[in-house]
Amino acid sequence: MNQKAYRSLFWPILLIGVGLIWLLSNLGVIPRENFAMLSSLWPLILIVIGLDLLFGRQSPLLGAVVGLVAVGIAVVVLIAGPALGLSTAGILRHESLREPLSETTQAEITLNLSSQPARIYPLSNSTNLFEAEIDYFGELRFTSSGTRLRRIRLERFQPNPSVSFSPDPTARWEIGLTPQIPLALRIDASSGSVDLNLAGLQLTDLQIDQASGRMEIELPENSTAYTARIEGGSGSLQINLPREANLTLRLDGKSGAIRIAAPPELPLRVEIRDSGSGNVSLPDWLQRISGRDKEGVWESASYSSAAQRVLIICEDLGSGSFTVR
């Protein structure tokens, strides 16, 4: 009697998993830098192939289970690895950075954050332009140039990816900025949570690119008009508006929820040009001016006559929810 041959479902499941991971990366759910964490897990490929050879040819169900487990491990490592302490480089290091204010009258600051939680806050009673306490893996790149106009750039660089677990769960980035001069600020986030307390800073321009980590932003009361461009990611995004500001806020969303806390007395206009597939919730004190359904223009009663006001332009909200409260 011929034994019935089964076709393993391992490879079809694996191909579907690769497509799913690729899709999650394009949607911003998986930061591209996290793929380096898979480089040291290549022996798992041999293990799962061996398991498929042992069991997958005997039963399609067992082959499917092996494939699902392999894809599940890869997804967990890519999404939750940094939160679990899994990092993409070897030894955890610490560095203190200080830049004096000196003759600087304005500054352009670029911060490329890492998977460690980060807090950015205004300095008080300090003669420094920039202060930072950084815990990091790999290499840290810090540059500062110019005198009157200072350009500062901080980022983590990882030349040789490997996998390790941080022994210190308190590892984080603490960055202080001076409120004494105008600042143009650009922040590229990663998978770590980010708390941006920008209250008191003199912003001339703000650009933020969120990734998969949670982010909360406290915006300052600026009398000078400036523009903030914020691109959401797969993590939740909380934006706290001040009682008074002269601000244009341009928003793009992805899959993460966006929540905006706005005082009822704030002169506010909200333009939703593409609501995406997520829910939109606006307070009663914002009256619709034009549009229909989830797209259109809403204004507070005080907006048209206010000298200082806030305009929020939602270019594309993606699949996440959008709430103003």
DSSP strand tally:
23
Order of helices and strands: HHHEEEEEEEEEEEEEEEEEEEEEEE
Helix percentage: 10-25%
Beta-strand portion reads 35-45%
Distance from N terminus to C terminus (CA atoms, Å) equals 72 Å
Query: Which parts are unreliable, with pLDDT below 50 for 5 consecutive residues or more?
Result: 161-167
**The biggest beta sheet, please?**
11 strands, mixed
Number of domains: 2
Can you describe what's shown?
- The protein is an alpha/beta fold and 325 residues long.
- The chain folds into two domains: 10-80, no CATH class; 93-324.
- Helix content is 16%, strand content 38%.
- It contains three helices and 23 strands.
- The protein has helices at residues 10-26, 43-56, 60-80, and strands spanning 86-87, 93-100, 106-112, 118-122, 128-136, 139-145, 149-157, 164-165, 173-177, 182-188, 194-197, 202-209, 215-218, 226-231, 237-240, 247-252, 258-261, 268-272, 280-281, 287-292, 295-299, 310-316, 322-324.
- The strands form three sheets. An eleven-stranded mixed β-sheet has the order 6-7-3-10-12-14-16-22-18-21-20, with no helix packed on it. A ten-stranded mixed β-sheet has the order 2-5-9-4-11-13-15-17-23-19, with no helix packed on it.
- α1 runs parallel beside α3 and α2 (43-56) packs antiparallel against α3 (60-80).
- The longest helix is centred in the first third of the chain and has 21 residues, at 60-80.
- The relative contact order is 0.11.
- Mean pLDDT is 87; it is low at 161-167.
